[in-house]
Amino acid sequence: MQSKEILLQVMDLEVSYHKKQVIFGISFDLKKGALIALVGPNGAGKTTTLHTIIGLLHPQKGTIRYKGEDITVRKASENVRSGISLVPQGGRVFPDLTVLENLQLGGYFLDDSKELNQRIEFIYDLFPILRERKYQMARLLSGGERQMLAIGRALMLTPELILLDEPSAGLAPILVKELMKTIEEINKKTGMSVLLVEQNVREAFSIAHKAYVMKVGKIVLENSHPTSLLDDEALRKSYLT
Q: What is the pLDDT of residues 76-88, one digit of tens each?
């Protein structure tokens, strides 16, 4: 059962990128165990929001709290250690390392080799194709396989909160559906909280517990029944295209 405890709070956040303000006072929260979709057109500020939460960017104003602690200006490395992981857009992996070596690097904080191997087996169970490809160089993987590896590597430290930036980008429709099912499975089986930034609105809404819609650096809509938003033609034209 989903907890009512708030894991992440973003309050009145204002962020600039290359001296241009791109986030204008957004606020939202994510409850422990929730799967939240953050959607909107290109340039809405979704990726900037994720980068600010993880600590790659720092805001001009506002507050970010994680498990009740202020992490607004904390370094990304500290946030990773505290249980937040980011999967950047594009399935970024170490191309000249094998699948197995990529996963081992994802568990670089782990001192116990037995625990490391157990985590790797968990990833292989989620993404069986990675087990088949474990000795293959990551640069030889397909786009979908690279995305699986990027997510798997982020899961190696069993984060409490995973930030996914456009995980379906560039994937064939059938792979998008499979990936979304896996993200939903991760959330349900592990209780891991997920903040999903996604262009494929229909697929994102099909698994999300709640949705926030962004446009031009602002949250213009929130809804606890995301699939109902897809039936609103005016909304789709205004905010989701």
A: 999 999 999 999 9
